[in-house]
Specification:
The chain has about 170 residues and is mostly beta strands. It has one domain: Jelly Rolls. About 0% of the residues lie in helices and about 40% in strands. It contains no helices and 14 strands. Strands 2, 3, 8, 9, 10 and 12 form a six-stranded antiparallel beta sheet that branches. The chain is globular. The protein starts with 7 loop residues before the first strand and ends in a 13-residue tail after the last strand. The model has no long low-confidence stretch (mean pLDDT about 80).
Amino acid sequence: MILDITLTLSANQAITATATSTGVYDTAGLGVGQPVGNIFGIADDSSFGNDIGGGGPETSGPQLVAFVGTAFAAGGAGTLTVQLQAATDTTNTGTPGTWNTILSTDAYALSALTANAKIADFTVPRRYPGKDFPRFYRLNYVVATGPMTAGTISYAGLLTGIDNTALYPANY
């Protein structure tokens, strides 16, 4: 497994109301607000993006994981949903366009939002044919019947190079 700081979307982030992750993954590696200058010899490519889903023949696709740090609490029966969102940069300004939800967890009840609980674990899907290649990825934490009075996400991010090779007995 490869854990890269640029793939971290949330680290010890407090969530009391609906909020986005503090980190945004930029497939160009430049960061939000930085236009792409020259990719593969094409100056000012205004449609740079990358399909990070699916993996390849010998690798798995990136995994999205999220863990609770401090247990969540609410005055009522609050719930939390984790959404993976992606956006394109069609104007090449380094500014994300419209954020689209591409994956979502079920709504977690407070009883499931305990310390160290894994609340998201799924493979990033391939982009849909005919859609633009996203440049930016983030998480959206949706709080319903809240607000939460306590709770943090200790870590949420993308993992690559997952070690999921099948193990077989020796000498066969």
